[in-house]
Amino acid sequence: MAEKVSTKNKKVQKKKNTILNLLIAICAVIFLFSGYKLVSYYFEYKKMDEVYTSINDLIIGDFIYEPDSEGLLKEAPEINMAELQAINSEIVGYILIPGTKVSYPVAHSEDPYKYLNYDIRNNPSRAGAIFIASNNATDFSDDNTIIYGHNMLDSSMFSQLGLYVDEEDYIKKHAYIYIYTPSEIRLYRVFSAQVSEETSEIYTLNFSSHDDLVSFVHRQAENTAQPTKKVPEDVDSIITLSTCRNSSGPERNVILAYLVDIKTTN
């Protein structure tokens, strides 16, 4: 009888060991796969950083920024758009938000999804590029120009838009956005930061009348998650910067800014 119990215990123990070894093997596979993904992400982020750092060094160099307490520059850097367009003919501008990581060429393609998966040098990239909506005018002359970028884990691209939504002081200190085109420097001031969805009226490009645009602007100013300075009674045009709020889901971090000034460069 004792021998039968011992044999049974051995079988039970053997089964437990088999299950344990299987679990260890599964954990090892998960660990190795996770390690592979982390290494893969590291090199991909490193490559992305090298691409945009090299362009920044070429276009802006060692320019010293002198922003005031709201992010308005004493002097804006000169950016040679011809050099940028020599890199990629689909580059239509350059976006700069002083005091943030947002300093990137802006692309436009008739393919609305291209720059979600390709960098500014037309190489496949998880980070993609900063780009305007495919049906927007490339000279930022629409009532509302939508500018898209990924929300990256290393705070690059448009990931810092979330700070406008979540931190009160951030919107106060980084209120100005510079958009360079081949012939202009366009200065914008942020008037609203929100969590929205891609079906929102925020993504309207043009309005049936100028009054409708102005009404829209004042409505969105009231909807801001963080307080901003009062919006002027009249506004000529705006830009909307948009990125995903989370890695999945319909929510978007968006900031809206109205046109303050235009400086002709040639």
Count up the domains. 1
Helix content estimate: 25-40%
Assembly state: single chain
Computed Rg: 25 Å
If you had to describe this structure to a student in words, what would you say it looks like?
The protein has helices at 2-59, 81-87, 114-117, 161-166, 168-173, 210-222, and strands spanning 91-96, 103-107, 130-132, 144-148, 176-180, 184-197, 238-244, 251-264. The chain has 266 residues and is α+β, with helices and mostly antiparallel strands. The protein has a single domain, classed as Sortase, Chain: A, CATH 2.40.260.10. It has an eight-stranded mixed beta barrel with strand order 1-2-3-4-7-8-6-5. Strand 7 and strand 8 (251-264) form a beta hairpin. Mean pLDDT is 88; it is low at 33-42.
Which SSEs are present, and which pair or pack?
Layout: H1 2-59, H2 81-87, E1 91-96, E2 103-107, H3 114-117, E3 130-132, E4 144-148, H4 161-166, H5 168-173, E5 176-180, E6 184-197, H6 210-222, E7 238-244, E8 251-264
Parallel strand pairs: 2-3, 4-7
Antiparallel strand pairs: 1-2, 1-5, 3-4, 5-6, 6-8, 7-8
Question: Main attributes?
Answer:
alpha+beta; 35% helix; Sortase, Chain: A; 8-stranded mixed barrel; 8 strands; 266 residues
Brief synopsis:
This protein has helices at 2-59, 81-87, 114-117, 161-166, 168-173, 210-222; strands at 91-96, 103-107, 130-132, 144-148, 176-180, 184-197, 238-244, 251-264.
